[in-house]
Amino acid sequence: MVFGRKKSCHVHSASSDDETMFAKDHKPKKIYQLWPGNNKFYCGGRLVFGPDASSILLTVAMIGCPSLTFCIRMVFLIGKRFPLFHSLILMGALLLAILDFTFLFLTSARDPGIIPRNKETPESDGFDMITQSSEWVNNKLGNTKIPRTKDILVNGCTVKVKFCDTCLLYRPPRASHCSICNNCVQRFDHHCPWVGQCIALRNYPYFVCFISTSTLLCLYVFVFSWVSMLEVHGKMLLMVVRDDAIFIVLILYCFVVVWFVGGLTAFHLYLICTNQTTYENFRYRYDKKGNPYARGFFKNLYELFFAKIPPPMINFRDLAPEEPDVEVGSIASELDRAFGPRGEKYDMEMEIGGCKNSKAGLSLQTMEYNHNKIEETIKKKGLGERNAETNTAFYIPGIQEPENLTRNSSSVDVRSR
């Protein structure tokens, strides 16, 4: 067989051109770009928001619109009567509004205390062993999986911590996995849709300050709307309603909102005094046993408002560690998996329009060539076609299967015995 090397459809290995291209296109990525959670990152990973961060716009509108309306109304009253009095009211409203928006931003755009994930399940330490009791429970519950737990001593009390199958870690005490953000968070309190973020260890003080200033702002606008309205229009209620509807709308709005935000503030002040979280309180965690985290009224207040906020456990702006042989979806990786590593120096001839693949085609051609050489050797030794047929047939596995396996007449047939 004559071998001819075709020049068409000749494709070289990606060892030189592709590597240069990948080296130019490949840029090291940061952790926030590869983070598997549902968070939204802005300003190069400096700002960390929840997946429902767009709800902040509604919160800003609910705070900003009445505050701005009240301030504009105060500006018009400054030139009419008692300019100093209305100027002080205006400055107080602006200060509370600025503080409220500042605490809202610090609550929403801050890492609440996200715990880094593990890439692999930690080594078994005796908790995965199947006992008779666990086997009986599994049979009763069917396919329901019993969560892995550990017991930890906290201030002399035993606290049970669970294993997170998503983050592949045992959660620290008071931590929980937020299903909305898809993260395990330190001292998880709750996920607040109004701020679009988890409320946890690192932003809980700012959240308390946010709802407190919101309550004060509502009360401030409510009270001074009444005072300014009566001071300008007199004490006749019907005349006030007829002449100044803006103050009436502000009074009604603040009266409704203050019940919600004020009640929320009072509830969290109770949680602070007892050193509980919303998650623990809703699950009646300490109704039947003592709270190991309670330190007394003053120490609980000090822990929240004066203790130093711990640094984040993960810096999302750091470079992500590069995994070996990570070329997902690239042409080079597909070629490596199909034909071996690119370190081997070979040329590939793709079978396009009659061109043979060099790796598979060359193997077939080599086997055909060996078969022809064997036949020529047999003929040169003087073996005729008859002797070649009567001898045990020689075949190449996968290429030529034996058709008639006949034996020499001199050989002994086992079946004749």
UniProtKB/TrEMBL annotation:
Domain Palmitoyltransferase DHHC: residue ranges: 162-283
BP GO terms, sorted: protein targeting to membrane
Recorded GO MF terms: protein-cysteine S-palmitoyltransferase activity
Top-level taxon of the source organism: Eukaryota
Compartments it resides in: Endomembrane system
Enzyme class: transferase
Region entry Disordered, spans: 397-417
TM region(s), chain numbering: 56-78, 84-107, 204-226, 246-273
Main location: membrane
A Pfam cross-reference name: DHHC
Catalysed conversion reaction: L-cysteinyl-[protein] + hexadecanoyl-CoA = S-hexadecanoyl-L-cysteinyl-[protein] + CoA
Enzyme Commission designation: 2.3.1.225
Gene Ontology CC: one annotated term: endoplasmic reticulum
UniProt keyword annotations, A-Z: Acyltransferase, Membrane, Transferase, Transmembrane, Transmembrane helix
Entry membrane topology: Multi-pass membrane protein
Biased composition annotated in UniProt, kind: Polar residues: 403-417
Sequence similarity: Belongs to the DHHC palmitoyltransferase family.
Entry's free-text remark on domains: The DHHC domain is required for palmitoyltransferase activity.
PANTHER family, per database record: PROTEIN S-ACYLTRANSFERASE 2-RELATED, ZINC FINGER DHHC DOMAIN CONTAINING PROTEIN
Designated name of the protein: S-acyltransferase
Organism: Arabis alpina
